[in-house]
Amino acid sequence: MMKKLAVIGSSGGNLFYLGGNQPINLLEEIDQQCERNGCSLEAVQYIAANRSLDRVKPGTCATLYTWKNGTIITGKRRQLESVNEEANRLDDGIAEKIRSGQIDGLVLISADPSGVNRAAVGAAVEKKIPIVGTGGTSMAHVESIGGHVVGSSGTTGTTNRTRALTVISYLCAYWNMSSHSAHIQWKRLNPTGILTAGLPAFIALAIIHTAAEYFPSHETIQLLQLVVACIPVLLAVLSAKQISDLNEVTLIAALIAGFFANKAGVLGGIAAGLAAGALSSYLLLVCTRKKIPITTSNLIAGALSGIIPGIIINLVLARFLSFVQNGMVQCINNLINWNGLLVGAFSGLFIWLSLLKKGYHALILPIILIEIAQAGTSFFGAIDMICLVAIAAGVNTALWVLHHRKDAAAKKGLVMNVCYGTFVESIYPYFKNRAILIATLMSAVLSGMLVGFLNLRGTAYVPFIAAPFLSSAPTIFILVMTEATVLSFIFVLIASQVVRNASVD
User: Fold this and answer.
1) Alpha-carbon distances, residue 184 vs 9, 136, 147, 169, 488 (angstroms)
2) What are the distances in angstroms from CA 156 to CA 106, 141, 278, 284?
3) SS3 62
4) How many Å apart are CA 80 and CA 421, to the nearest integer?
5) Is the predicted pLDDT of residue 383 greater than 90, yes or no?
6) DSSP secondary structure string, 376-441?
7) Which run of H or E residues covers position 486?
8) Which element (helix H / strand E) includes 73?
């Protein structure tokens, strides 16, 4: 049977700085936890002031938030005294609902049980319905007057999400209902998505790496080392967020774990984040089931979930994970040293096939980022820039010329590829013409051979003008980029002429 709840309270004193000044977010979090756990909101009376209620002054303004037909209703912003008068009338209405059995449980958020919440709290005490909430002073007062408090805590160290999660879990435990508040979201896990989400950081690393090479000094080397150390921390945060939805608690746990595991590289950061995210959700669930106060639960979940996996990876797994990461990069280097022409030709063809078959972001891009994390530049980054972006720019230019400079799509694709190093997909529609597809792939194979033979390294997702300066050999990189663009331009023009002549015949 669906349990109906009422939420009463205010933005409070200390709570004001811990999410109480975000009433919509707080109430939505409580509503979402209710939906997950077989409960529903029946009534809301929440006063949000424009400053901490510990520092009320004449002229303090506030807004009254209520609930109607499953929707949060925001009242007008007025003087606190006027809002309190309206809240008193609403308090009487909630008390009547409690006495008539329309409300099964009461949630207090920094409430005022001797003031604007007196009627509702009194009715809850009278009917012996379970009461949960945060705000040490108010909850202590409710217990002192005989309230049936089944879970309470202060507000320090809590967030709107963990606050909502915990108070609903307390009620579920009281009613012997299965709690689905804190759970590990393994279905959301996408390991390649973790790396791609961190792309801006890898580009920053490539830029700092280049700066350290052009302007070698103690300061630039230190800056490079700092950025390299930050990458695993960032990946730990991105990893943890994929499987845990505890907001600040997840963030803190992941930061701690990533910091301890940063010498394990990219793989260590990801492993640390996943472990921290999973452990934080598990520990918070255990704490709520044991009715440990929310503040303590947050401290346990946030601190231990970061320290435990971070130290284990640092002391036990770091060497192995670094070995795996180094091995991946070294394997690419060995293949190029073995036969750069063959490897380059295959890579130029394969990167296009992976893109067309939707495998680029799952395979190629993670390899590029791991290479950049290891060395600052990437072989597959050079393949991406030359065999994808430069060739797409050449194809777009040829199509624009063939269509007498009236093809807006080709022009836009050219500008995007040259100025931003992305939007290779702009030439996809033209691949319906097999001749253009074959011309593109031939250009990629030949350009890839040059990249492999010259053992070029670079960075993807940067403008044409920046790509050479973020490469291992700027002058040669410019020449090969130009070759790829011109070659694809010529091949598409020839292919189009051959098709035109064949159709005339």
Assistant:
1) 30, 30, 34, 16, 48
2) 21, 18, 23, 16
3) strand
4) 55
5) yes
6) SSBHHHHHIIIIIIIHHHHHHHHHHHHTTT--HHHHHHHHHHHHHS--GGGGGGGGGSHHHHHHHH
7) helix 474-504
8) strand 71-74
With contact defined as beta carbons under 8 Å apart, do 176 and 195 qualify? no
Does position 287 have pLDDT exceeding 90, yes or no?
A: no
pTM of the model: 0.85
* Contact present, 481 and 470 (Cβ < 8 Å): no
Q: DSSP 3-state assignment of 21?
A: coil
What sign for the dihedral angle of Cα 466, 468, 469, 470?
positive
- pLDDT at 503 exceeding the cut of 60: no
pLDDT at 77 over 60: yes
- pLDDT for residue 290: 82
Look at residue 248 in the predicted model and tell me its pLDDT: 87
CA distance 206 to 403: 38
Question: How does DSSP assign 100-160, residue by residue?
Answer: TT--SEEEEES--TTTTTHHHHHHHHHHT--EEEE-HHHHHHHHHTT--EEEEE--TT--H
State the Cα–Cα distance between residues 419 and 439, nearest whole angstrom.
Answer: 23
pLDDT digits (tens, 9 = 90+) for 92-128: 999 999 999 999 999 999 999 999 999 999 999 999 9
Contacts of 471 (CB under 8 A, 6+ apart): 377, 382, 456, 457, 458, 459, 477
In the prediction, which pLDDT does 497 show? 83
Enumerate residues 6+ apart whose C-beta is below 8 A from 217. none
Helix and strand numbers, DSSP H then E, in the chain: 19, 8
For residue 81, the tally of other CB atoms under 10 A from its CB is: 10
Nearest to residue 422, comparing CAs of 388, 469, 383, 461? 461
Residue 363 exposure: Cα atoms within 13 Å on the Cβ side: 12
Q: What φ, ψ does residue 342 adopt, rounded to 5°?
A: -65, -45
Angle between helices 248-260 and 265-289 (to 10 degrees): 140
Burial 253-290 (b: 16+ CB within 10 A, else e): bbbbbbbbbbebbbbbbbbbbbbbbbbbbbbbbebbee
Question: Per 3-state DSSP, what percentage of the chain is helix, strand, and coil (rounded to 5)?
Answer: 70, 10, 20
